[in-house]
Write a sequence for this structure.
């Protein structure tokens, strides 16, 4: 039997990049002989992304802690205070830290390594002397995210065993703090990776975007791009995801008579795969990304890509062989490239073929080997 590993994350109850790649990774590592446990920081719940039955799951309910009760009171009674949500985020994280550390105090000796899946968790584990030397911070978002408190705490990453990040920009930052930092990309699930090339004639005239519907993902600007683009009448647009801006986006679609645009809400993995297999172009207009795993999913599904060059993931994925990397918030160039593809089938067909070829470098074998080196 290989090493015994504990992964720590908040939940696996809804669509999300971290939960998805966590499930993909543990499912592969358990096949490699590792003994895997996951600690979820909420009550027992059904998995949104399937996790191998050999993986043992533990739950501690951070929402039952007194810190969350304070957040609930603040939201109800003190909602008029500026930045009350930011204050609540810090208060809630105090509760998370307390319940997590209590559980680890009883169980950490059972594990060879602890892999923290979010920077807020890694920051507090970095100052926990019982576990920091065997903790690996698995970073999923730009090091610039988090505000002054967490950015100061990231200096304590020097106490951790290692840091695993997703791109060169974050690697340069973390390497200066912890010399045992490394870059490992996120892997796809087996169903996505096993796809064969899908030719244009077997697809619909469809543009997709997969994103959480909040301000950071900048979906409203994507709808503005669609409105201002010269799309042929037989082209459709489907947005997959849910979030705080759903009502705003619905209103924009209705107010601007965008009958070719559909908001599909949250879908499961099979539904996403089915839509991507019918799509020809996948777009991303995020203002920031940790990586952009949805872009790689689109590559495996034979999609051409158009994405903003935001900090810091798309630049690691998008190139002239698979699509167009657009300067951040340069709507005019985004519209120009989109119009060029939908109105030039030959160019689009060629790009879809080379895009699928590019996907092969993201297959899981190389990623698993890098993780095995980290865990050795």
């Amino acid at each position: 039997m290989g090493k015994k590993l504990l992964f720590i994350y908040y939940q696996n109850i809804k669509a999300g990049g971290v939960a998805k790649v966590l499930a993909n990774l543990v499912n592969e590592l358990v096949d490699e002989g590792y003994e895997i446990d996951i600690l979820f920081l909420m009550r027992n719940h059904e998995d949104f992304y399937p996790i191998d039955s050999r993986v043992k799951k533990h739950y501690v309910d951070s929402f039952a802690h007194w810190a969350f009760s304070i957040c609930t009171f603040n939201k109800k009674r003190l909602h008029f205070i500026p930045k009350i949500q930011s204050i609540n985020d810090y208060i809630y994280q105090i509760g998370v830290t307390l319940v997590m550390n209590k559980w680890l105090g009883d169980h950490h000796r059972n594990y060879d390594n602890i892999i923290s899946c979010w920077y807020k968790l890694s920051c507090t584990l970095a100052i926990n002397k019982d576990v920091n030397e065997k903790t690996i911070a698995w970073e999923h978002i730009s090091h610039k995210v988090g505000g002054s408190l967490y950015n100061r705490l990231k200096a304590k990453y020097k106490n951790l065993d290692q840091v695993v990040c997703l791109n060169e920009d974050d690697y340069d930052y973390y390497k200066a703090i912890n010399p045992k930092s490394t870059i490992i990309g996120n892997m796809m699930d087996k169903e996505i990776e096993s796809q064969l090339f899908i030719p244009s004639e077997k697809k619909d005239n469809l543009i997709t975007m997969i994103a959480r519907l909040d301000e950071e993902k900048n979906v409203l600007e994507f709808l503005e791009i669609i409105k201002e683009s010269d799309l042929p009448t037989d082209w459709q647009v489907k947005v997959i995801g849910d979030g705080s801006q759903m009502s705003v986006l619905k209103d924009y679609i209705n107010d601007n008579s965008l009958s070719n645009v559909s908001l599909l809400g949250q879908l499961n993995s099979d539904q996403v795969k089915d839509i991507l297999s019918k799509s020809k172009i996948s777009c991303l207009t995020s203002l920031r990304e940790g990586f952009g795993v949805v872009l790689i999913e689109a590559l495996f599904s034979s999609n051409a890509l158009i994405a903003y060059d935001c900090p810091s993931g798309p630049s690691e994925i998008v190139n002239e062989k698979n699509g167009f990397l657009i300067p951040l918030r340069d709507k005019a160039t985004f519209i120009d490239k989109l119009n060029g593809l939908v109105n030039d089938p030959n160019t689009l067909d060629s790009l879809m073929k080379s895009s699928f070829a590019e996907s092969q470098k993201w297959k899981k074998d190389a990623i698993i080997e890098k993780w095995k080196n980290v865990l050795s």
Summary: The longest helix spans residues 84-107. The chain has 14 helices and 13 strands. Residues 131 and 374 are 17 Å apart (CA to CA). The two ends are 13 Å apart (CA to CA).
